[in-house]
Design brief:
The protein is of the alpha+beta class and about 525 residues long. The chain is built from 20 helices and ten strands. Helix 6 runs antiparallel to helix 7 and helix 9 packs across helix 10. The longest helix is centred in the middle third of the chain and has 32 residues. It is globular, with a radius of gyration of 25 Å.
Amino acid sequence: MTELADRDYFTDHEILVDPYAYFEAVREKGAIYQPKGKDYLMVMGFEETLEIMRNSEDFSAIIGLQGASAPLPFAAQGGDITAEIEAHRDEFHGGDLLVNLDDNAHLQLRSLVNRLFTPSRLKANEEFIQAYSDELAREAVASGGVELVGQIATPFVTLVIADLLGIPAEDRQKFMDIIQNAPPPGNLDGELDLDAEDHPFMIMGGYFAQYVADRRANPTQDILSELANARYPDGTLPDEMAIVKLGMFMFGAGQDTSAKLLGNAMRYIVDQPGLQDRLRADPSLIPALIEEVLRLEGSTKQTARLARRDTRIGDLEIKAGTKIMLAIAAANRDPRRWEDPKAFKLDRPKIREHVAFGRSAHTCAGAPLARVEVRVILEKLLKYTSDIDLDPAVHGPRGARKLVFEPSFIIRGLAELHLRLTPGEGVDLASTGPSIIQKSEAPVPPSSPAAAPSAGYSTAATKLAVLLKDAAAKEVLDRHFPGITTDKRIGMAKSMTLRAIQKFAPGQFTNEALDAVDSDLAGLPVE
């Protein structure tokens, strides 16, 4: 039988339940360990993790999403593979997303994100957070119970980031539905193709493509206009597709971090004796609770780096091309750094020094927002209740809980958490106003074909989805733009016309080429 330390972390579903026992078994092998038969290193130590996170010169973030177990798309040779990484970047899973970028490309895009998470903007956003969390908490307590992850956590954090970005109110329910049905990143059963037409990122990308194109053509005073027209620190205007992908990533990353943190925090509130009463009596302790939960059971279990130059970790020589798994969950329980590391301590010294949100260049930009979101919703739930407990019919009794976790090697989070909520004595649970969001009976993705103009097809008036449904029009597109009709990346643009798409790829969709397409389309009968 394979000993615990050498089991496959990236595919073993049993490790999901208690990854910490697995990490401790690996730690017994050393602060850095190469599992038998594997071609990657696992880093368990706090100081070693910090050293790697801070060294973005020698370690690339390119494998952050695909993980350390996935093969590289090239054979690493020599003492510096930086050029090879960049040459093959589009072959890595999510290689052009913020979390995987390096050097100036990361610095430039990160500068745009940082503008969204300034203290003043977060303070303004907290008005929405307070109102929406109050609405959710009142409804849940009045019902006597709630499934926390699906009914509160996911919609709450999704709509908070929608409000921060300025997503139109009529589209927010659609985004909530898209995120709620999305698989977790780092899925143990295999990742979905990010370019697949039905991937949540692609569906959201269809909306963002329209937002960005519209705000650049018709800027207003909203946040979307600011983001769409923001410039990099060097004064250059970002490519429109870079802004679209940034919006997609922020939605996906934001909901995973905050939603799972809320569920993890609630487990401690419920099962730590006397804790919820203590928090009700003194809500100022909630931030300390959040930090200790982040250390003990943060939303991110691990991340990964690829050594792009020959380097060292401590005294250990590392060759370029070495894949490294940074076990964040293990580093945050390193006994060399934390006294009694497995214990929950509300007053733990220097608690914010954990690495749950990363460190250095790739520190989670949304960390301040996540802290506010979770603090506020917990304040509301505690305010309106006298007792919170897990539903024993679903999760079993205290001391023998039955919990199901998301099947992800990246995310530590519950698939569901059913709560029983006892209202506080004299608490008024009546609604204080209209709902924060606009409900939609049947959300329709932007890729749904619109009716073709009766006068005929054109690149200025006919959406791509309509052209792709017509065999003759589809043949015209393939003749002028070979491969376009089978390119999965075009999925997010199906709700747009080719003239609108031109703004994202002016080199490919030139005026001359589109004029030629119009000429050929003019002779086609409209289906």
